[in-house]
Amino acid sequence: MRIITSIEEMEREVAQHREAKSSIGFVPTMGYLHEGHLTLIHTARKENDIVIASIFVNPLQFGPNEDFDSYPRDFERDEQLARNNGVDILFYPNVNDMYKPDFSFQIKVIDKVDVLCGKKREGHFDGVATVLIKLFNITRPNRVYFGMKDAQQVAIVTSVIEDFNFPIELVPVSTVREEDGLAKSSRNVYLTEQERQEAPNLYYGLKMARSLIEDGERNPNIIRNKVIEHIANHTSGEIDYVEVLSYPELKEQKEVFGKIIIAVAVKFTKARLIDNITFVV
Ligand code: PAF
Prior knowledge:
By secondary structure, the protein is α/β, with parallel strands linked by helices. The protein is built from ten helices and nine strands. A six-stranded parallel β-sheet has the order 1-4-3-2-5-6, with helices on both faces. A three-stranded antiparallel β-sheet has the order 7-8-9, with helices on one face. Helix 3 links the parallel strand 3 (50-55) and strand 4 (89-91). Helix 6 (124-139) crosses helix 7 (151-163) and helix 9 runs antiparallel to helix 10. Bound molecules: pantoate. Pantoate binds at residues 28-30, 58, 61, 128, 131-132, 150, 153.
């Protein structure tokens, strides 16, 4: 596995693989790799000649009161994991190279952002879109791999690819869960023991909502309130949102139909967890 920190070197390396007609799968990450990331890497490994993963904690997607400084980082561990799981090139750029002081643009995402995480994290998806446009240009992948745990991110990256005409296929990969159903996340390490016990209830609440719909319930407010009730009764966390929307459009519906997402975000003492399920009604 090659570790590349320089953008120019990365571009040269990619040009060679392009020239050789090798297919490139790209897994962008902010590091502190967990099984969710490794599943993206394994999927990319099966489908491409070359697998590039990036580690870049993108300051642009963190709000002023968010956890940029304390976001978990462990490059040595990440490097080992990337190497042992089939990454060919680990791209680890420097923040000052990615965002030069004279960086002249601001990307503003105008659709699909006023719901779910976008509603409370103003500017978050602008930062995600900005870094991905740069990373897609630098790594020029054929396929990019994103986890459905961040379903809003998947919906927005789909628009980035379409709207900016990137010749890239987005491959959404199902959420990887712990045995008890908790979605894997770098932030799970910040849960207290009690919170860790409670946290699978985010998923149980979502599954209960799906059962309600399967039994015929179509009113999004009733479904939403049942999930809120479940999470409130079974966790000490503070509910940030529970939403029932069309997917990937992320629009409210009067009655649920077609492909939908039920998504939750819950704040625990030191970690804000998100989870969702998408399915066709
Ligand atoms: O999902 C993430 O880890 C980040 O949002 C991403 C896609 C790597 C962009 O910084």
